[in-house]
Amino acid sequence: MPTGRGLDVAALVVWLATESLGAIMLRGWFARGGTLGIRRQPGQREGMSLPILAGHAGLNLIGLLFWILFLLSGARILSFVALGFMAPAIGLGISTVTIWTPYPGGHAQPEERSGVVPDELIERALEDEALGQKLVEELLDRNLGQHPARSGWSLRPLIPASHGVLAIVTFLLATLAAIAAL
Question: In whole angstroms, how far apart are CA 65 and each of 58, 69, 81, 85, 106?
């Protein structure tokens, strides 16, 4: 490998970290039955499709292979070929964000929300601290689907968020490295 290629290697390291987080998410997706209808309940939202997920992961892996070939050979064109595979992979990844990202709180169904608390209940809650606390807890349960004091923080949303941030950093580093190789 030629010397003076710190930016190229940095892009590779971040790319591998991004792929690792993607593999963790993929493993979890398969563990939950994917969207192939294996464990899908009637009326459950469809979720992510296998072709989109396979396209996203496959294009990134092909780009990674071209990046490794670029590092080994020093052929500049291979860096741009790698970027050419990465760009549509990022587009497919962005399209999955709203489906994939787990939200920490559940959402109550619209029919469960009355939305209006009677004035007399609010007045009594202002005078009685215990009633006020109970009213706040019920409102949190109804609107968030869980009470923060009773449920711990989940780090699961950090995995797809970190994957996305690392993907952006990878693309920026790889683009800068490809331009610097000119």
Answer: 11, 6, 10, 10, 40
Q: What is the pLDDT of residues 5-61, one digit of tens each?
A: 899 999 999 999 999 999 998 888 777 776 544 444 454 455 667 788 889 999 999
Name the DSSP letter for residue 110: G
Helix (H, G, I), strand (E, B), or coil: what is residue 171? Answer: helix
Helix axes 50-73, 76-100, angle to 10 degrees: 150
Q: What is the pLDDT of residue 125?
A: 81
What's the burial of 112, exposed, middle or buried (CB within 10 Å: 0-12/13-18/19+)? exposed
Give residue limits of the domains in the chain: 1-37+48-104+153-182, 107-152
Q: Tokens for 97, please give them.
A: 């964000």
Rounded to two decimals, what is the model's pTM? Answer: 0.65
